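tokens incoming
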């Protein structure tokens, strides 16, 4: 068995970086930038008014009570054709370019206006209520770096910088196959000893949430010919993921069958609970990740390994969102495997939240995973822990996001 950290490192080293493609700005939400993005122009491009009021020369308003003549008007989106001279003012609106000669704005609430004359109630320093050119950003500024996840704020900034098309990483195509005679698809009625397959829906949703493009290959029966036929549909994928058949039982055929047909195994078995019988290698020149069949094992391994693989393809940080929190109850010493325990937040009597592991950690019990808040991560040979001790936790909701 190899350590979790080594398994992650080998997977990350083997994953390809996705090529660049151009998408229209409205279609880029949730995508990852492939190149740095620079501003095509300054924002604002000219000095503009921050208020509705009057563009003036500050030297004319050194004292309250100055009287000026209004010589024109400039709304947002237009440029005043003339120049503001001594004793003059121009009616201006928020966002309109400051006329030549003016260096301040008298807000309309501080102006007494009669016809084309105004009296300023206040004195003004230079630059008052003026947004200088480039206040937000200047032309050529790197507003967004390669690897940035394009959320609503990033798209708004890209638009403000003048970009209608964005260079993004292509979504990794991930082919997903469940294996096992006992499995049926959701909605089908299983036999007396059958099980409804939850791994494919879980993994597909995870892949999509991490920026990939999932391809459902369905369920392969426990026969080599069925497995190989299903994997024929994975051509063109960037990553091939199976669940089930990775252990050593008589019907666990994935490794033996694929090795006989060209699978180059990088590693098999990890010092981890749940998820010990995990396989990684290359099959038909596609990175291959063979997850355990138990649904909790498959889901936890996906968070630890599949998430990192996809984020590496997209040029995103691959670290898990690990933090530390106090235990709500004692824990016995851990064995030689790195443990990922399902756990919940618990808060009593107004105290800060504490971590309580689920009472049962059987890897077939998906309901506990579905309702858990956390994975409590324990290193190998971790000693017994008392209530209140700090432990490492991974918030599942954060791990499912990017």
């Amino acid at each position: 068995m190899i350590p979790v950290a080594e398994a992650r490192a080998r997977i990350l080293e083997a994953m390809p970086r996705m090529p660049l493609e151009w998408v229209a700005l409205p279609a880029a939400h949730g995508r990852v930038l492939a190149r740095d993005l620079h501003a095509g122009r300054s924002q604002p491009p000219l000095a503009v008014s921050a208020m509705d009021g009057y563009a003036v020369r500050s030297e004319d308003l050194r004292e309250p009570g100055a009287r000026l003549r209004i010589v024109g008007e400039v709304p947002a989106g237009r440029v005043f054709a003339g120049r503001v001279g001594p004793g003059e003012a121009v009616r201006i609106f928020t966002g309109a370019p400051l006329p030549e000669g003016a260096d301040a704005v008298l807000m309309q609430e501080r102006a007494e206006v009669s016809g084309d004359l105004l009296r300023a109630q206040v004195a003004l320093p230079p630059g008052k209520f003026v947004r200088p050119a480039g206040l937000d950003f200047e032309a050529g500024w790197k507003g967004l770096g390669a690897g940035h996840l394009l959320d609503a704020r990033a798209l708004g900034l890209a638009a403000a910088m003048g970009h209608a098309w964005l260079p993004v990483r292509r979504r990794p195509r991930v082919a997903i196959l469940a294996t096992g005679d006992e499995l049926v698809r959701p909605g089908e009625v299983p036999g007396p000893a059958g099980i409804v397959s939850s791994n494919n829906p879980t993994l597909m949703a995870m892949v999509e949430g991490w920026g990939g493009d999932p391809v459902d290959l369905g369920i392969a029966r426990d026969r080599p010919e069925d497995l190989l036929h299903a994997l024929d549909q994975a051509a063109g994928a960037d990553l091939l993921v199976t669940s089930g058949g990775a252990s050593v039982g008589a019907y666990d055929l994935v490794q033996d069958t694929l090795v006989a047909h060209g699978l180059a195994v990088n590693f098999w078995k990890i010092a981890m609970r749940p998820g010990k019988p995990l396989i990684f290698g290359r099959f038909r020149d596609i990175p291959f990740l063979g997850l355990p069949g138990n649904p909790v094992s498959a889901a936890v391994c996906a968070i630890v390994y599949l998430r990192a693989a996809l984020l590496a393809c997209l040029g995103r940080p691959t670290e898990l969102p690990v933090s530390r929190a106090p235990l709500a109850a004692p824990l016995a010493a851990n064995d030689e495997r790195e443990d990922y325990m399902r756990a919940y937040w618990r808060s009593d009597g107004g105290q800060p939240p504490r971590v309580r592991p689920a009472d049962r950690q059987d890897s077939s019990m998906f309901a506990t995973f579905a309702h858990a808040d956390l994975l409590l991560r324990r290193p190998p040979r971790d000693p017994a822990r008392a209530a209140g001790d700090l432990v490492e936790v991974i918030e599942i909701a954060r791990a499912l996001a990017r």
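note: Helices lie at 4-14, 152-160, 199-209, 224-231, 254-260, 295-313, 366-371, 396-400.
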